[in-house]
Amino acid sequence: MNGERPLLVLVGPTASGKTALALSLARHFAGEIVSCDSVAVYREFEIGTAKPGTAERAAAPHHMLDVASPEENFSAGEYARQARQVIAGISGRERLPVVVGGTGLYLRALLHGLFSGPQRSEELRERLRAASARRGAGYLHRVLRRLDRASAERIHANDESKIIRAIEVSLAARQPMSEAWAHGREPLRGYRTLWLGLNPPREQLYERINRRAAAMFDAGLVEETRQLRECYGKRAWALHSLGYRQAGQLLCGELSREQAIAAAQQGHRNYAKRQMTWFRREPAIPWLEGFGDDPDIEREAVSLTMRFLLG
Fold first, then answer.
1. Are 98 and 25 spatial neighbours (Cβ–Cβ below 8 Å)?
2. Same domain as 160, residue 191
3. Which one of 31, 68, 116, 191 is least enclosed by Cβ atoms within 10 Å?
4. DSSP state letters, 223-236
5. Are residues 162 and 266 in the same domain?
6. What is the predicted pLDDT for the residue at 141?
7. How many domains does the chain have?
8. 237 shares its domain with 137
9. pLDDT digit string (tens) for 74-122?
10. Cα separation of 105 and 268, whole Å?
11. DSSP assignment of 127-188, as one string?
12. One domain for residues 162 and 38
């Protein structure tokens, strides 16, 4: 189609079997996997990210894992810049890029581009943090809701860094950030894209999420968190992500082990809901009603991909 190169994008909620299906598709179609995960980009964050293991990485080339220092603030824009270079390299080798992950903002930045926005203002950010400390949890989210309701609905109330950036952009641009995003974005060009989405039954998904969150604690998540805290302290943004946050609360004595596991399970279930809400905004996604490691789902995905490549 007009010389456009094929690109496969596989999305779905956490624990839906994206990794297994991505590996299967990569084997079938000489593909290379491009991770789209906002925490897996960081080196030394292993257990809580459910990164592909050694055997999985040996089965197909993987990209955009372990590309950032734990102390780095790796933005969606930086992810898009690097991932676009990776995808161009994969296509240049006449292999199929398979983008897989669950971070909606990173995926939007990669495929649709992001409004670059004004430069950071450390003075404003300090004022906002101080106001948050005085006014309590939820204050900044309420401010954002007054400035930009659409962004407030998209950004979780506990994600202070994204809330502060949205307020900063809205004030500097003198318009809601969500409206500013509609202008000046540079989408990914030169590719025709097949989306595939995994939509497992909700109760079965939650059971998997619960098992996986508990297994992370059994596998040493608390000790990994302890080591990261000792090395980097507050400089490692990803320590606030799911799993690591609850393990940190356990280390601080705020939660018991059982409470930390339950909180992580609940957090991951809530995250899965938000992921599906985000991805359902993409009208082009054909939804596969099952898990990525289900043989029937694998056959359906292979068939769809084959038709896409031949078409």
1. yes
2. no
3. 116
4. HHHHHHHHHHGGG-
5. no
6. 94
7. 2
8. no
9. 888 899 999 999 999 999 999 999 999 899 989 999 998 876 666 778 8
10. 17
11. HHHHHHHHH-TTHHHHHHHHH-HHHHHHS-TT-HHHHHHHHHHHHHHTS-HHHHTTSS----
12. no
Residue ranges making up the domain that contains 158: 122-180
Q: How far apart are CA 99 and CA 281, in angstroms?
A: 18
Structure tokens at 256: 């018991």
Is pTM beyond 0.85 here? no
Closest CA to 10 of 31, 38, 30, 40: 31
For 111-161, how does the pLDDT look when each residue is reduced to its tens digit (9 = 90+)? 988 766 667 788 898 999 999 999 988 999 999 999 999 889 889 888 888
Type of residue found at 187: P
Supply the pLDDT for residue 94. Answer: 97
Residue from 8, 81, 22 nearest 51 by CA: 22
> How many C-beta atoms lie closer than 10 Å to residue 245's C-beta?
19
Q: Which residue has the tokens 């641009």?
A: 173
